[in-house]
Specification:
The structure is a homodimer.
Chain A: E1 2-5, E2 15-19, E3 25-26, E4 30-36, H1 37-50, E5 51-52, E6 55-61, H2 70-82, E7 90-95, H3 97-109, E8 115-120, H4 123-129, E9 134-139, E10 142-149, E11 154-157, H5 167-184, H6 186-194, H7 200-220, H8 235-244, H9 252-269, H10 275-287, H11 299-305, E12 319-322, E13 328-331, H12 336-347
Parallel strand pairs in A: 2-11, 3-5, 4-6, 4-7, 7-8, 8-11
Antiparallel strand pairs in A: 9-10, 12-13
Helix pairs in contact in A: 2-3, 4-5, 4-7, 5-6, 5-7, 5-9, 8-9, 9-10, 9-12
Organism (chains A, B): Sulfurospirillum barnesii (strain ATCC 700032 / DSM 10660 / SES-3)
GO molecular function (chains A, B): 3-dehydroquinate synthase activity; metal ion binding; nucleotide binding
GO cellular component, one term (chains A, B): cytoplasm
Chain lengths: ~350, ~350
């Protein structure tokens, strides 16, 4: 005897990423803006003039990856309770990737899920983190190991917010743009080689192109059963670097830049990437002053740390590798010895 | 300029509720059984002989609604990390509604979501809580205010586990069966009036019927935008009773039984339910020794407590009322005075 539970509805809804189209937004519900101290000082008053709501509240969190934890999540949720948000209320994530991931996570949990909007203020969040609905927090076991898939109702990328971005953060965002180009679009990579993203028009073009790539990938594979994993190019190595340096030495995008170089060493060993192409990728990263080298103390310890990354099943690490420039290969069959050799070469 | 993010995939998958069909289950992944001290003592060894997995682990939580909190959730998640569960691993919820809701919640969060199976051991969990994918925990603001919609991969209801169920818990489950009948199926209600559920065959029939009703409702409205709210008949009142008595005096099903009687008082005042039908519902509840009266100290205080329930938007409480026996009406336009009068009458 059994009963079928037939679910016809999808929880996720399609949405738009708007670029430089945020003039004013009106909602007939309560709205809670979630931001951090840095962004609040620079831009919160400005944003508040643009948002019209039944009630407009805000909660300001401390700034930094180390606050991407359960305590900050609880601050957001408590603000929801204190302001008695209901199921039709809306959260707005106003900040970088950390704010976006935590706000989306809180939105997915409050009363089993309410809507949220992303208004990313860093380049990295605009081109990558704000699109695709990955939410989460870090814990002692690693990064983003607890979270959900919860898509925003809309994303508003405003280039105005990028003007106050520190140079290092700007470059960290460029790393993710380069990531998209290397793994998915050779033409875009070549365009990046010949266009300076410090130019505002070029930057906007690159943001649009990166988001388009990401949206196409996410549309194919929302919950990362397959191709979406390619977006983790550089991240498998990068996460270990971030973890070993306690998230204090490198920005996420910087660790990813080094991670791409390490992944390229491995791709070269496997004959997937030529020395020339690896050199072109390295040159593009360096042009934006991104770090490309990390001193690995022990390749063995570094290797073991892969297994704490959630993308890895135990004893099977999934490597995302560039297959020339503009294509990719997912490999989970690479012998430990070859990975160790690649790590040693990257270290040289 | 904008980019469309088109999501074609649904996260929720259809699944089966099996009744008395659990012989043995084999998985080529890691499996973590989540249970509580009471169920573990009675049935865990038995269940372990039926589950074959790459690795079989278990985590045993303290028993009781008061442990449906973040600390217990963390115990489950930490067990997932300690046993290095990966994205293909499986959780098994083995217990009543509390274990089911928390295990489902943990499954939805671990690595942004892994599969879980429900093996409910209480009548209430079998007929109601284990089906439909509502997960969550309680906090100081109220019940199930933080959670997710996360559907199990399958549900196995075994009547063998009900044999060790205390009499009060058995009756609490009957309350939810009566709830389904009153709001959705007059024929089923009449059948309940003429069949004693202490008889094993009748009980199994009632379980099947209740799950079928629930599955039909959930299939129409997974995330409770409409008709699924009808399953909260008796719950709006019941949650206040549970909250005022600190979840210690009444089992959930008992509070729902009293809540149905209160809702019926209101339905009578509005001319939706006859005195005779209200009497039949009352008689059926009493037949299973369910409580039908709660001493309301202050109707005003009781009324205000509705607004802490997440189903209520501020200043608009949604009441689920029986419309005769076998049908329902959702109302959010009832003046406060009428509700207060109904509360006073229920108190008389």
């Amino acid at each position: 005897m059994h009963v079928d539970v037939l679910l016809t509805k999808t929880i996720s809804k399609d949405y738009c990423v708007y670029i430089d189209q945020l003039e004013s937004l009106a909602f007939d519900t309560k709205v809670l803006i979630v931001t951090n101290t840095t962004v609040a000082d620079l831009h919160l008053a400005n944003l508040q003039t643009k948002i019209h709501a039944k009630e407009l509240h805000s909660v300001i969190l401390p700034d930094g990856e180390k606050y991407k934890n359960f305590e900050s999540l609880e601050l957001i949720l408590n603000a929801c309770f204190e302001h008695r948000l209901d199921r039709k209320s809306l959260l707005i994530a106003f900040g970088g990737g950390v704010i976006g991931d935590m706000t989306g996570f809180a939105a997915s949990l409050y009363q089993r899920g309410i809507d949220f909007i992303q208004i990313p203020t860093t380049l990295l969040a605009q081109v990558d983190a704000s699109v695709g609905g990955k939410t989460g927090i870090n814990n002692t076991y690693g990064k983003n190991l607890i979270g959900s898939f919860w898509q925003p109702r809309a994303v508003y990328c405003e280039s105005a917010f990028l003007k106050t971005l520190p140079k290092r953060e700007f470059s960290a965002g460029i790393a993710e743009i380069i990531k998209m180009a290397v793994t998915f679009d050779r033409g875009f990579f070549e365009w990046l080689e010949t266009h300076d993203l410090h130019d505002e028009t070029h930057l906007k073009e690159a943001i649009y192109k990166s988001i388009s790539i990401k949206a196409t990938v996410v549309a194919q594979d929302e919950t990362e059963q397959g191709i979406r994993a390619v977006l983790n190019y550089g991240h498998t190595f990068g996460h270990v670097i971030e973890n070993q340096t306690h998230y204090t030495t490198y920005l996420h995008g910087e660790a990813v830049a080094i991670g791409m170089v390490m992944a390229n060493c491995l791709a070269q060993k496997l004959g997937l990437l030529s020395q020339e192409d690896a050199g072109r990728i390295m040159a593009l990263l360096k042009r934006y002053d991104l770090p490309t080298h990390y001193a690995i103390h022990s390749p063995e310890v570094f290797y073991d740390a892969f297994f704490l990354d959630k993308k890895s099943e135990y004893s099977k690490i999934k490597f995302i590798l560039a297959k020339g420039i503009g294509a990719h290969e997912i490999r989970n069959d690479i012998p430990k010895e070859i990975v160790l050799e690649a790590l040693k070469e990257a270290n040289a």
